Amino acid sequence: MHIWQMQTAKARFSEMVKQAANDGPQEITVHGRSVAVVVSKELFDRLSGNEASLVDFMRQSPLYGEEDIEFERDRSPAREVDL
Hints:
Blueprint: E1 2-5, H1 6-11, H2 13-23, E2 26-30, E3 33-38, H3 41-48, H4 54-59
Parallel strand pairs: 1-2
Antiparallel strand pairs: 2-3
């Protein structure tokens, strides 16, 4: 893992992002303390479990395939607005 000082990371941001995509996580420090890590989107999705698409997520719903779902509508009157 490459370590970047904050000021260098800001100045060379695009290079740091490319290294995260190609070489793995990039650590950012402020006054010698680690404060952040930049990772590729691919690694982030893998670690956070966000690999499934929205369609796949919706298909996993317990309501998937239900035909007769009723949603109650708020019947309260609209508010008055002075224009």
